[in-house]
Amino acid sequence: GAGVSQSPSNKVTEKGKDVELRCDPISGHTALYWYRQSLGQGLEFLIYFQGNSAPDKSGLPSDRFSAERTGGSVSTLTIQRTQQEDSAVYLCASSSKTGSRETQYFGPGTRLLVL
Amino acid sequence: RKEVEQDPGPFNVPEGATVAFNCTYSNSASQSFFWYRQDCRKEPKLLMSVYSSGNEDGRFTAQLNRASQYISLLIRDSKLSDSATYLCVVRIIDSGAGSYQLTFGKGTKLSVIP
Question: Which residues in chain B touch residue A106, judged by CB atoms under 8 angstroms apart?
Answer without folding.
Answer: 43-45
